[in-house]
Q: What sequence folds into this?
């Protein structure tokens, strides 16, 4: 299977702890996106990378959040000093650049974070 | 502005009933339009897409037609199955350099046997 993968699938942590999530995109895709989805809502954009460059960050992404894509392949999303409001599903998606497919994105299974 | 609006759920149908989930969008120009489906505990799967006006996307018995006159992309299926129970999201890319997806709030479909 060469789809988008995410790890872990579930994470339970205590308030104040740091957590890190990993995303492995489809190998030939150079764009990688992070979204956050809360219960009953659609995904909301957090940030995206073109190769290793982080080109945009949403205002949703507070200073406690940081994302990297060091070699233009996998990406990590770290949340420091977690708060209960960070509890959500974190989704990663990838797409090829160029728009030939209409800018469709392919999603991973998500990491569900619960902060207690 | 740029937004996507979907009908609120849940939508509850009996098996083999006809399904329509409404979606309208606001945009400058004519962006691609997508329907994604999310099964419980999973990520989003691309169900179908249309890349220009008057295109019809179709997959697994689902269809949606890109109608620029009504700025709509309604999802339809002639005969739903219990296995179609999921949350359906309408989406479009923001037409700047990011092409990040803008999603509707989702419509939960429950199909009863």
A:
């Amino acid at each position: 299977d060469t789809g988008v993968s995410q790890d872990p699938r579930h994470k339970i942590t205590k308030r104040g702890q740091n957590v890190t999530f990993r995303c492995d995109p489809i190998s030939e895709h150079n764009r990688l996106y992070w979204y956050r989805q809360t219960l009953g809502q659609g995904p909301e954009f957090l940030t995206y990378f073109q190769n290793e460059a982080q080109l945009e960050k949403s205002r949703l992404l507070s200073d406690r959040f940081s994302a990297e894509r060091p070699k233009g392949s996998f990406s990590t999303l770290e949340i420091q000093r977690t708060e209960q409001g960070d509890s959500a599903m974190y989704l990663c998606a990838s797409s090829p650049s160029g728009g030939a497919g209409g800018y469709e994105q392919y999603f991973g299974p998500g990491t569900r974070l619960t902060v207690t | 502005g740029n937004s996507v609006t979907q009908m609120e759920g849940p939508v509850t149908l009996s098996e083999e009933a006809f399904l329509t989930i409404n979606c309208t969008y606001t945009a400058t120009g004519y962006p691609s339009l997508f329907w994604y489906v999310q099964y419980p505990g999973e990520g989003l799967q691309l169900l179908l897409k249309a890349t220009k006006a008057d295109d019809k996307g179709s997959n697994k018995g689902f269809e949606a037609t890109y109608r620029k006159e009504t700025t709509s992309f309604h999802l339809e299926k002639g005969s739903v199955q219990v296995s179609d129970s999921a949350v359906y999201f309408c989406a479009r890319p923001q037409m700047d350099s990011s092409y990040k997806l803008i999603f509707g709030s989702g419509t939960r479909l429950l199909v009863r046997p």
